[in-house]
Amino acid sequence: NGRAFVAQDGSVIDLGTFAGGSWSAGYSINNNGQVAGYAMRQNGTFQAFLWSQSTGLAAIDGLGGVNSYAMSVNDSGQVAGSAQVASGYVHAFLSSNGTTKDLGTLGGGSSYGYGINGAGDVVGYSWTRFGDTHAFLFHDGVLYDLNALLKTQGWVLTEAYGINDIGQIVGSGWIGGEQHAFRLDPATAPVIALRTAAFDAAPADVPEPSTTMLVLLPLAGLLALRTKRFLRDGSGRQHL
Asked: Fewer CB atoms near the end CB (10 Å): N or C, the chain?
């Protein structure tokens, strides 16, 4: 049975599980030592948590469904993740100050939150009403399809996994029939500029653009996807 842990100064701290549960996993840690992850409960369901030395495993409120998963935490203790809603589908969420916000979808049944930055911007991916997946950015209360912000044709950004404090986003997408990792660079820092921004795609061998340009830099090779991905039917089960 797996256990979430923190490794520090040559020792390993076992974060434990919820009462009666037999499994837990940590996915993200912030500069204050708080850990975001999820653990199994006695009834076999999965529960998102935020761990600290003072609180131990603290459950994060879900979205009305059974299972929930915390994937990333920033230094303010805000958490990005996903949780089942009452219908059984899974929606991305932002947990902040004890409140869990449903980020919705891009028109399909489910969405998944993976990364968060210091400003509380969340990235992930969502099903669309056409049955495919698109990478998204949740910023200032609005869920954006990153593909809708691209001016250059050819790219389909399918998943976003991380965002830093200057708004750079990494993920996976398709171009020329191949799946490539990408890095998306915002025009200016602060990230607020993303609200009205559009993005250009450029080959990886183009010189680094100025900070007044918006450019997508495809990286060579395929993105090593997370080994655990949620089934898209919202069941809460996992597969490799």
From this structure: C
Cα 137 vs. chain centroid, distance in angstroms?
9
- The pair of structure tokens assigned to 240 is 């490799």
Residue that has been written with the tokens 């060579």 in this structure: 220
Could you give phi then psi for residue 193, rounded to 5 degrees? -65, -20
Q: What is the DSSP string of 22-44?
A: --EEEEEE-TT--EEEEEE-TTS
> 213, 226, 221, 141: which is closest to 178 by C-alpha?
221
pTM confidence score: 0.80
Q: Give me the amino acid identity at 229.
A: R
Q: How far apart are CA 206 and CA 28, in angstroms?
A: 33
pLDDT band at 149; cut points 50, 70, 90: confident
Contact (Cβ atoms closer than 8 angstroms) between residue 75 and residue 32: yes
